[in-house]
Amino acid sequence: MGKNINNAGSKLKKILEDKKVESVSLKEALDLIKDLKFAKFEESVDVSFNLKKDPKKANQPFKVAIPAPKGTGKKKTIAVFGSDSEIENIKDSGADYLGNDQLVEDFKSGKIDCDICLSSVEGMKYAKKLSRILGPKGKMPNVKLGTISQDLDSLVKSAIKGIIFTGADAQGNLHAGIGKISLGTDSLVENFTALCEKVLESLPKGMDSLNSIFVKTTMSPSVEIDKNSLKGIV
After folding, report:
1. 111: Cβ–Cβ under 8 A, 6 or more apart, which residues?
2. What family is reported (predicted)?
3. Could you tell me where the beta strands, DSSP code E, fall in 11-52?
4. What sections of 72-168 are H helices per DSSP?
5. What gap in Å lies between CA 169 and CA 131, rounded to an integer?
6. The sheet that has 210-217: what strands, in order across it?
7. Which pairing describes strands 78-81 and 97-99: parallel, antiparallel, or unpaired?
8. 50 vs 119, 168, 231, CA distance in Å?
9. SS3 call for 198
10. Which fold, 2-71+163-230?
């Protein structure tokens, strides 16, 4: 595995040297990481935004979440909190776990867990009882992340299709998975564009708040995206 990683890194270095560039357009970057793929499993495509701003400051977007326009290709376990009538209305929505008081008990006992937790406004009185369980995992429903809504049916459909989540690390970088590589370049471009627009909207100076943007697959080396090439796209 280590040899394959080194070979992919050397191949990328030569390609960029031949092009006499350090960064490429978004589409070129996605095509490159597909060519560099060597893992036998289906890899995900990850994006990193390197921020100029201190992530500890108030306006720093620690978390951003958007529905993936083209889905992510990943199956997520979804739990939904709501009133009895709300849960009855979405019982065939495709969510894995639905409920209120009993759902709280199932979480507390460790009987169930989830990747994404959704709620209606009324359902939050139940979800809040799990703040010590869901909070540290970053799974507590949140208005800013779009995981609380009165339209639970649409919310669940969006979550099943795929939600892209991102957050800032201690070094001032935002990381997010934009989907499986099998989605294809056009779909990944669309997912990236939607994410990038949301990130830039959340930053005080938009693109000027970014040092750089990189894209990679699970196992490939990172390829830098030329920020200037994104003009007119985002």
Report:
1. none
2. Belongs to the universal ribosomal protein uL1 family.
3. 44-51
4. 84-89, 101-108, 124-127, 131-134, 152-161
5. 22
6. 63-67, 163-168, 173-180, 44-51, 210-217, 223-225
7. parallel
8. 32, 9, 18
9. helix
10. Ribulose 1,5 Bisphosphate Carboxylase/Oxygenase (3.30.190)
* Cα angle 199-131-174, degrees, rounded to a multiple of 5: 20
Q: Report the pLDDT value the prediction gives residue 184, as an integer from 0 to 100.
A: 92
Question: Is pLDDT of 6 > 60?
Answer: no
pTM above 0.85, yes or no: no
Tokens describing residue 85: 């009538």
What lies within 8 Å, CB to CB, of 34 at 6+ separation is 181, 185, 217
CATH of 78-161, one of 1.10.287.110, 3.40.50.300, 3.40.190.10, 3.40.50.790: 3.40.50.790
The mean pLDDT value for 141-160 works out to: 92
- What Cα–Cα distance (Å) separates residue 149 from each residue in 70, 72, 97, 158? 21, 21, 17, 12
Alpha carbon distance 89, 217 (integer Å): 39
Name the 3-class secondary structure at 133: helix
CA distances from 187 to 27, 35, 183, 205 (A): 11, 17, 6, 27
Classified as helix, coil or strand, 234 is coil
Written in H, E and C, the secondary structure of 42-92 is: CCEEEEEEEECCCCCCCCCCCEEEEECCCCCCCCCCEEEECCHHHHHHCCC
Tokens of 155: 């919310």
Distance CA 160, CA 155 (A): 9
Instruction: Using pLDDT thresholds of 50, 70 and 90, give the confidence band for residue 62.
Output: low
